[in-house]
Amino acid sequence: MKLGVIGCGKMGSALVEGAIRSGALNPEQVTGCDASPEAAKAFAAATGAHIVDTIGALEADTYLLCTKPQHAEAALGWLPDASSLVISVAAGLTTSWIEARVPGSVRVIRCMPNTPALVGQGAAAFCRGKGATSTDAEAAQLLLGSVGLAVELPESLMNAVTGLSGSGPAFVYIMIEAMADGGVLAGLPRAEALKLAAQTVLGAATMVLETNQHPGALKDMVASPGGTTIAGLAELEKRGMRAAFIEAVQTASRRSAELGGS
């Protein structure tokens, strides 16, 4: 693979750094381009990749589109009329929207990563455009999987992915902050309360992923009869915590559909 990175910001850098760290790519296979010379230089320093001044100077068979959505159309106009693959992480842009703006020989994959990819713990989904092949899907899996979990889904579910794993980190940060506040209210120092809350969320998530047990079963392991945990759970249920999280994901998914025009 010869990878051309269009947009060398945090997400583009995270994906390339992850792929290089995992051995999926080496720096000689990657060239980056960004409208900001400072961003391009930082990308080169972080990854060891080459950089060029214009998209037209990229020599690649696979392009990673990491621009802001409003800049994507101008960037895509530079792509050569040659058989290549575009892997887009530009939020809300459908495969058909991208396909209408690139030469007919270009294949498209749309991705929805999330910010924990920056620390190698991302949760991402991707879908194929009409001409994308299983080999193209493997390329997307290679990049996204190097910085966390990556799953292939139908494009009709990408707005749901945006509402769940795309927006979800912000929902979890609020939960961590609130749990830490509760610890402070109970007498813990702020710094220790925050560390304990964050590690508790990390540990619980790891239990779900590594044991393959239903979260309800894991919850029941903690909630002993008449104990502290079941008392706390009863309070959360009384205040509608479960319904609030469900509606937050639904609302974010609907907003994603509005922004993408779908």
Keyphrases for this structure?
alpha/beta, 15% strand, ProC C-terminal domain-like fold, 262 residues, eight-stranded mixed β-sheet, 11 helices, 2 domains, Rossmann fold
Structure, described:
This protein is 52% helix and 15% strand. By secondary structure, the chain is an alpha/beta fold. It folds into two domains: 152 residues, NAD(P)-binding Rossmann-like Domain (Rossmann fold, 3-Layer(aba) Sandwich), CATH 3.40.50.720; 93 residues, ProC C-terminal domain-like (ProC C-terminal domain-like fold, Orthogonal Bundle). The protein has an eight-stranded mixed β-sheet with strand order 3-2-1-4-5-6-7-8, sandwiched between helices. α5 links the parallel β7 and β8. The two termini are 33 Å apart. 35% of the residues are buried. Catalyzes the reduction of 1-pyrroline-5-carboxylate (PCA) to L-proline.
Question: Could you give a quick summary of the protein structure above?
Answer:
The chain is an alpha/beta fold and 262 residues long. It has eleven helices and eight strands. The protein has two domains: 3-154, Rossmann fold, CATH 3.40.50.720; 168-260, ProC C-terminal domain-like (ProC C-terminal domain-like fold), CATH 1.10.3730.10.
Q: Within the CATH hierarchy, at the fold level, what is the topology of the largest domain?
A: Rossmann fold
Radius of gyration, whole Å:
21 Å
Low-pLDDT windows of residues: none
Please provide the ordered H/E string of secondary-structure elements. EHEHEEHEHEEHEHHHHHH
Biggest pleated sheet = 8 strands, mixed
Shape: elongated
Which sequence of strands runs across the widest sheet? Answer: 3-2-1-4-5-6-7-8
Approximately how much helix is present in the residues? 40-55%
CATH secondary-structure class of the largest domain: Alpha Beta
CATH superfamily of the largest domain: NAD(P)-binding Rossmann-like Domain
Instruction: Find the structural class using helix and strand composition.
Output: alpha/beta
Straight-line distance between termini? 33 Å
**Number of DSSP-assigned strands:** 8
Number of domains: 2
Number of helices, where a helix is a run of at least 4 consecutive DSSP H or I residues = 11
Mean pLDDT: 94
> Which architecture of the largest domain per CATH?
3-Layer(aba) Sandwich
Pfam family, one: P5CR_dimer
GO molecular function: pyrroline-5-carboxylate reductase activity
Catalytic activity: L-proline + NADP(+) = (S)-1-pyrroline-5-carboxylate + NADPH + 2 H(+); L-proline + NAD(+) = (S)-1-pyrroline-5-carboxylate + NADH + 2 H(+)
Organism: Luteolibacter luteus
